[in-house]
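Predict both folds.
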Amino acid sequence: MTIWLVGTTRRVGLANDLADLPAFIQKYLVITSADHSYVFGDFEMCPTGPDTPGHLREVCVASAERLVIQNLQRSTPPFRLLPTWPRSVVVDREK
């Protein structure tokens, strides 16, 4: 999975395991799911590796807000998710 940094031509790779992400977002990220979607939002990311030009940099997502889901399988309009992905969810799992 990758995250496109809006306003740039750069993408970063997601170092989080799917099981470590909040349950409400997991179904949108599984490529074989009927709910597979693009997820837009404001993400707080922490780099896990060096920034090497020409290479995909890995990051860990610590939190996310204002999430919008655009389904890739159906022609339905994008919608906003009410739950947020607070920093505490990721921090609690690391303990």
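Second protein follows, with its predicted structure tokens after the sequence.
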Amino acid sequence: MIRIFAIAVLAAAGVALTLPVGAQQGRASPHETVSQQIDGNRVTIIYGRPLAKNRKIWGTLVPYDQPWRTGADEATTLITQMPLKFGETTIPAGVYTLYTVPGEKGGKLAFGKNIGGWGVGVDTKNDQARVDMKRDSVEKPVDQFTIAIDRGAKDVGGGVIKMTWETTQYSVPFTVEKKK
């Protein structure tokens, strides 16, 4: 486990170092790393946090049914030390580029095997998997795109990846696959 995590951290650092200097310095959006210990497994997401700036987001700035980088600037990165199960789909331990295909009634969260780069270079033959996301409304508008990794209910375990922006939240639950 420690070895996989060390490789993942080095890969993420390598991605940052390969970016053009201007890309690192000229970011319009702040970047954040969210991390959560879920059932003995560390899940980490590194992403850019664009602001809505009074723009219509879903269906306009971020078109429906089109791949979106799920943040700003470099591709969003997910690191997991252990396999994650999203419904019947298992994502092996490792590092992935996350992108979404938002829709009016739901959407897809995609795990790409090509990591790094600027934006999202979608090539479905390099996807590890795509899983369904649930779409909900939130009461209070969120001006800055936010990703959270929450723990699931005690009786269920696992966790939930939540992406919130404007008045919309996309979410997808997962469990940690234990070694047998």
